[in-house]
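cron nightly-structures :: item 1 of 1
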Amino acid sequence: MLFPFINHWCCKLQQQHLQLWLGSELHAQCSWQPDLPLPAQLEHLFSMLPAAPAWRDSLEFIIDAPHINYLLVPWPQGITRPRELRQYARLLLAEQQGEQAGMKVSFLRSSFGEDAFAALLKKTLFASLKQLASQHRLRLTGCSTPFSNLLSRFGRTLPENALFASTGGQESSFALRWQHRWHSVFTLRLPHGDRLQQLDTANRLAGLPPLERYVADSGLGTPHAAASTREAPENNRDD
């Protein structure tokens, strides 16, 4: 065939499951076992891939907590380069969570000189993901998070005031904006699984008035269009 059909695979690393998606179809999944090495579990998942010509198909990873760390990083005086802010983010994570491993740092829709929304991934895990793609002759297109896909829906302009969330049954992550700036970023283990209650709790803990809420749908298969659920109080809308 002159122009073979190309499959675009998406592997999701979540708190309870590891999943392989092809478009909107869940192709395979397994339960994540925290006590077992993650690379071995991913190798088992990828053993369910169908045979295909080498390097024809592509692969993207969408990684959520607890496999990635989210952090609000203040921009201190004296820092003039993003590279310096990335190093500061690593130090801040070590101070707050005791995480000493080497980290890759990415900033999600953050402006120069302002507090930044950071995602931190262990370099060892990133290397394992690259190796996994190479072993299965898949073209790795990148790694993202449910937040990066959710935020991309807004184009170049994010809401002035909003609560963004990636929710799960045991653990949920939240990023809140207030007056055009990132205000709070945190991950919580909540005693209830009701999504609306989780959003209310996060909004209240941040000490902000009721915000419009946008929730990444971790169950959606397509990796490029994370769905959102929006509860917008009428008294919080812009005229």
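cron nightly-structures :: done
The chain is about 25% helix and 30% strand.
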